[in-house]
Amino acid sequence: MIRKLKSDDRQQIVDLLSRISNFKKVECEVAMELIDIAIIRPEQEDYNIFVYEDNGKIEGYHCTGKRPLTDGVFDLYWIVVDPEVQGKGIGKQLLKHSEELVAKNNGRWLLAETSSKDDYDATRNFYLRNKYTIVAEINDFYSLNDSMIIFGKYFN
Fold this sequence. Notes:
156 residues, alpha+beta, Aminopeptidase, 4 helices, 31% helix, globular
């Protein structure tokens, strides 16, 4: 079941992020900053966070928000699936949910940024399998030899 984030979800998300081997400590801290903003200020609309829950256990989540200064561009800030349940279609369901949020809010684009490093091959393939295209690449963005690849899906 996909549902809106609740404050009691915080610790499960901390635990979930700690199991993602690709994420550095600082990346988990940034992810938690957005979680905390959504919990502390539930009326805000910048970070729309939805969790995938099965039998009381959070197995993934997405954070999607409208890009400031645009009239229809959204960012998929985070999409995370517990490594224990990857390959079961949870990521695809979360992505579809994010896309529905964008469409419901008259969005034209949904953008997702990721790393060019080899350990992000599965992430890049995930976006390609779900009909996203590479709309930009910025060389040496995160660090030397780690470019940012921006995937996008356009909604007519």
